Amino acid sequence: MENTSVYSLSISKIKNIVFDLVALLAIYLVPAVSHLLSFPVYYLEPMRIMLILAVAHTSRKNAYLIALTLPLFSFLISAHPSLIKTSLITGELLLNVWLFFFLFEKLSHKTLSIFLSIIASKIFYYLIKFLLITSALMSGDLISTPVYIQILMMIVLSGYIYLISFDRTE
To answer: Which helix (H) or strand (E) holds 4?
Structure first.
């Protein structure tokens, strides 16, 4: 009898692979969509959106994979953002994932955990970016995405986590 279980993929692995491919495709299409809409779609933080969707709908391991690969993929396909900024975004997204799971273990509140993890990772991002700009390792404005859009996205993403959460006792 042949052992076919070695070759079969679990439903969760297939789900993760499909999600990862969709996330990569979404990031790949951001420049084209921005051009078509005449709106800088990156203002909506598509990498963070994909990250939060990964946290919500896939495994912890896959969320870390998304945090590592999306900025690198963006850099490889478009040479944007710069390698330093790619590293900074990767660090921010990895911190976002780690903080979410850490805070959720402590607080048992998904919505608050995601909201606080986004805020803390953004503070980290802007502190490091400030240091890089002041040390002349990076150029540009400290804040390129309007703050009101960032706040709106934090609320929308936290609201999404609240809406999909089955535990309404939060």
So the answer is: none
Instruction: Tell me the pLDDT tens digit for each residue of 154-164.
Output: 999 999 999 99
- Residues 71 and 86: beta-carbon distance below 8 Å: yes
Q: Where are the domains of the chain?
A: 9-164
Q: Which residue has the tokens 């999306």?
A: 70
pLDDT band at 8; cut points 50, 70, 90 = low
Please state which architecture CATH assigns to domain 9-164.
Orthogonal Bundle (1.10)
CA dihedral 90, 68, 158, 13 (to 10 degrees): 180
Q: Which two tokens stand for residue 38?
A: 């005449």
Total length of the chain: 170
Please check whether residue 94 is in contact with residue 64, taking contact to mean a CB–CB distance below 8 angstroms.
Answer: yes
Residue in this structure with the two tokens 């309404």, named with its chain if needed: 168
Q: Within a 10 A sphere around the Cβ of 96, how many other Cβ atoms?
A: 25
* C-alpha span between 26 and 28 (Å, rounded): 5
Spatial separation of the C-alpha atoms in residues 120 and 135, rounded to whole Å: 23
* Alpha helix (H) residue ranges in 79-169: 83-107, 110-134, 147-164
pLDDT tens string 52-102: 999 999 999 999 999 999 999 999 988 878 899 999 999 999 999 999 999
- What is the pTM assigned to this prediction? 0.87
